[in-house]
Amino acid sequence: MTAIVHGSMRLRTARLVLRPVEDADATATAPLVTPDVAANLSTWPSPMSAEQVLRKVRKSREMMERREGVDLAILARDDSALIGWIGLAKEAPGVARLGYWLCEQARGKGLMKEAAGSFVARGTEFLDVERVKALVLKDNETSIAVLKAVGFQMTGEEEVFIETAGRSESCFRFDWYDR
């Protein structure tokens, strides 16, 4: 079953390949999680070791096998370089939470819009959820633009515990509904 599950979540776009994260991604991922990248993430510290990433990969694989979550590596299609991650995790019946990041060198090129636009509908189908929620720091204009571009609507605010900083912060909540 695992091979079928993993194979069903391989996506290709004009410039990207999205595939389930693998153990081998740990070494490539760790140096990409710079302080600038981690500043907008609640559970990704910087610096981050390959061992810490490997734990995330293995947790992701377990969640994927139970259909409770899915994390995909975002690879540049032209050279297969790992440039980020995107994922969904079930939070409640019928609801999943979206998370994503790109390395600094891949930003500003519309790549996350491309990745999220391809992934969200397939991810909701895979997890059998109708709604996806995304929480974004209020000053993260780039992420807000990505969410709006792929069909999310701002629906309010929500406190988020920023694990890496040890504090809560008010974030904008965006929702996407499977239509």
What is the structure about, briefly put?
The chain is an alpha+beta fold and about 180 residues long.
The CATH topology: Aminopeptidase
Q: In the CATH hierarchy, what is the superfamily?
A: Gcn5-related N-acetyltransferase (GNAT)
Quickly count the domains: 1
Give me the strand/helix succession.
HEEHHHEEEHEHEE
Calculate Rg over CA atoms: 15 Å
Name given to the CATH architecture: 3-Layer(aba) Sandwich
Give the number of helices.
6
Alpha-beta classification: alpha+beta
Q: Can you give the helix content as a percent range?
A: 25-40%
- DSSP summary, beta strand count: 8
CA-based shape: globular
Outline the biggest β-sheet: 8 strands, mixed
Give the spatial strand order of the biggest sheet. 1-2-3-4-5-6-8-7
Q: In angstroms, what separates the terminal alpha carbons?
A: 28 Å
Mean pLDDT: 93
User: How large a portion of the residues is in β-strands, by DSSP E?
Assistant: 25-35%
Q: Poorly predicted ranges (pLDDT <50, ≥5 residues)?
A: 1-7
CATH class identity: Alpha Beta
Could you explain the architecture of this structure?
The model is unreliable at 1-7 (pLDDT under 50). This protein is α+β, with helices and mostly antiparallel strands. Strands 1-2-3-4-5-6-8-7 form an eight-stranded mixed sheet, sandwiched between helices. The chain has helices at 2-7, 25-29, 35-38, 50-65, 111-127, 141-149; strands spanning 11-12, 16-20, 69-76, 82-92, 95-102, 131-137, 153-162, 167-177. Helices cover 32% and strands 35% of the residues. The chain has one domain: Gcn5-related N-acetyltransferase (GNAT) (Aminopeptidase, 3-Layer(aba) Sandwich). It is globular and about 35 Å long. It has six helices and eight strands.
